[in-house]
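Lab notebook, bench 4. Still working through the backlog of constructs that have no structural model yet. Next entry is a single chain of 325 residues. Request: give me the structure tokens for it.
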Amino acid sequence: MTSGRAAIAGMIVLLSPGAAAAQGAADAYPAKPVRVVVGLAPGGGTDIQARLFAQKLSESFNRPFVVENRPGAGGTLAYAQVAKSPPDGHTLMGVTSGYTITPAVYARLPYDPIKDFAPVSLVSQAPFLLVVHPSLPVKSVKDLLALARKKPGGLDCGSAGRGSSTHMAFELFKTLSAVTITHIPYKGTAPALVDAMAGQVHMLFGNVLSTVAHVKSGKLRALAVTTARRSAALPDLPTIAESGVPGYENSTWHGWLAPAGTPPAILQRLNAELVKSANAPDVAARLAPDGGEAVGSTPEAFAQHIASEIARWRKVVKEAGVRIE
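Model written out:
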């Protein structure tokens, strides 16, 4: 009897006007071109990945998914704009690991990173590379740590800027290894790389896309990858954790969000197509040279990932004393 009542109740819900309307909206989605907002400049890893998956969604839904770059203030301007957009699935957002760093480094934000957004899917992740100038007399992370301890403050590390994901990769390294290395912030990855190759800074953490060509040319020396396990794209490179810094694990990742209140049926359709895209052979082939690996998570798993990353970076930022007013 109980199961029968439950079945009848379920039918009532399914047949209710609200449920029927929601399902109808999902079936008709998208009714117009979809904006995919990226809070970073064109040409970077986040932009490239957003365009890759936007193209796959355009093909799946037979409607344009158009990437719109809105750089500024560490991506927070774009996040605030999307948070206020109509929750109808026609405005989405491509984010990277920096999304979970901004709540820790910015004293005030015009949005709530948890409450104002609905996770759709974590689509991919990739390691950073720890690289040094070839003139530095180190061939491994253990060598680097020994040199840093021999000369406290004598080494420096470039980054894409205060509060950037590459800066946080460095701060996590410094905290877990208990070494004193000076941080040198730049206005982006490109100038930091230029100075690293010129020997103006001793080391930096960079994504595979921007650094691996310089490693292959001999202008930089790669010591390790930042992920918990070795990268399939660079299997000979050890992880930082196995090289003398137990517990170190960090990656650059990419995911999709929608404004909070977006109908669950639309989120489910988007998630299904993003997961399918992530598992497509051509996407895997495109991600592989950059060290990327497809994920294609559920919305729930992505929500948990975001929450845990925000908590982790708040702890690192507090220990490092990094704050942007």
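Notes after review: The longest strand covers residues 117-126. Residues 6-13 have pLDDT under 50 and may be disordered. Flag for follow-up if needed.
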